[in-house]
Amino acid sequence: MNTPAPAPGSDQPTLLSLRGICKSYAAPVLTDVDFDLHSGQVHALVGANGAGKSTLSRIVSGLTPGDGGAMTLGGQPYAPGGKAEAEAAGVQMVMQELNLVPTLTVAENIHMGHLPSRFGWVRRSVMNAQAREALTAAGLGDVDPSAPVSTLGVGQQQMVEIAATLRRSCRVLILDEPTAALTDPQIDLLFEQIAMLKQRGVGIIYISHRMDEIFRIADRITILRDGRVITAQPTGELTMDVIIRHMAGRDPVEATDMGERTPGAVKLRVEHLSRGKAVRDVSFELRGGEIVGLAGLVGSGRTETLRAIIGADRPDAGCVYRNDSSTPVKIRQPRDAVRAGIAMIPEDRKQDGLLLSQPVRANTTLATMGAVSTAGWICSGDERRAASRFNDIVELRGAGIEQNADELSGGNQQKVVIARWLMRDSEVMLFDEPTRGIDVAAKWTVYRELADLAGRGKAVLVVSSDLRELMAICDRMLVMSAGRIAGEFTRGQWTYDDIMAAAFSNYLNRKS
């Protein structure tokens, strides 16, 4: 076994120790994994999708039992029988997929399992006051603690979950892709909280595909590949290229030149779209052969705009037009948008994008059933061939197209959703956080697919919380601020500072 050496220069004791951890499903997921976490240390766990990072963290947090190996916490044997036992021992986890109850309020979710009560009655005033303190510390001071969680965007929900975890006392904190839906200001607030936890001696396991974050906050990095520890070293002894080579088992792929594209005819025109305070009088055009980014802060209305376009949320006003038509498309629900040639890859793949209990095969062909069926009967051979082809395109990693979607890693689940709409071949493609939870090497596969779609004349709109990602792949950038389009930039004319200034602009001296 590859036993990690103690963190160089660390005078802190080993807080959590894992030895020989194993786990198998249809195939081995973890094999003889050793891992050490010291008090006051951020230990990053990196690897390609399917490498076993989330499975290892679930074993530590009591959500999944291991098949072999041993753990100690604070020098004592540690074998939690469930999440509650792990939390009682001081092990807390913020999962990659949201773990909130949408029908409950923000405050109720923050206090889940720890509701302040007296004589059997919940003390709502105390609960809301404590929740407001936790929200303010996480940069969500404008969120109403009594609002249902379902009214918040995914980015805000992620911060609510982080706020709920940070308010609990813990010895070990596991963060699994905590910034996937967050923008830079929210990430800065999270890192401030992590710095304070380190000073208190909390050990932090940090899982992320964003290498800039890893180098920014991690003291030590363990790299997994195919369920095995490849190396465990201090962050300062590793480089980006070395990490990617260890993750992929080959030399890193150079960043593909996205090339210059010449936009064609208008494929989609949005005029004066509005929905409550989330989307305010939004107008823009998308042309074939271009990739347009939709940037903005968490809660700026980016996702809400896409949902209004496809009919997932009914707009209060505004129209959507296809091509050069002067007659708006009647979109009352998402199926109308799909029939009009508009497809959307949603931000929350687990809730909105997948049939988790169904195999990859069925999830891939879900939007194109006519292509794999005859007289209402699915042709299993056509379905398997189509699913295999499009999942090969996105480089899906797993046990094959018969594997259920809920058994895949988060990044591979995202790839299945992308494969579905690549198969549908819609003229207008709306991507909401398409690389969320996808590893560094696999991101370039998605970028190449976006570029290929644009090269085939598709109109592509991409929402991403990673501004640098948008700057790398887009021909044009729209910036939302407080529900409105606050700026538009073309490649070669934008700067990071200009885009961020536009993103904040409508929040300054805002009265409504």
List the helices and strands and how they pair.
Elements: E1 14-24, E2 28-38, E3 42-46, H1 53-60, E4 68-73, E5 76-77, H2 83-88, E6 91-94, H3 106-110, E7 117-118, E8 121-122, H4 124-137, H5 154-166, E9 172-176, H6 184-199, E10 203-207, H7 211-217, E11 220-225, E12 228-234, H8 240-248, E13 266-275, E14 279-287, E15 290-296, H9 302-310, E16 317-322, H10 334-339, E17 342-345, H11 349-353, H12 360-365, E18 373-374, E19 377-378, H13 380-393, H14 410-424, E20 428-432, H15 440-455, E21 459-463, H16 467-473, E22 476-481, E23 484-490, H17 496-505
Parallel strand pairs: 3-10, 3-11, 6-9, 9-10, 15-21, 15-22, 17-20, 20-21
Antiparallel strand pairs: 1-2, 1-4, 4-5, 7-8, 11-12, 13-14, 13-16, 18-19, 22-23
How large is the radius of gyration? Answer: 23 Å
Distance between termini?
59 Å
Low-confidence stretches: 1-9, 252-257
Tell me the name of the CATH class of the largest domain. Alpha Beta
Which architecture of the largest domain does the CATH hierarchy give at level 2? 3-Layer(aba) Sandwich
Write a compact overview of the structure shown.
The chain is of the alpha/beta class and 512 residues long. Helix content is 32%, strand content 25%.
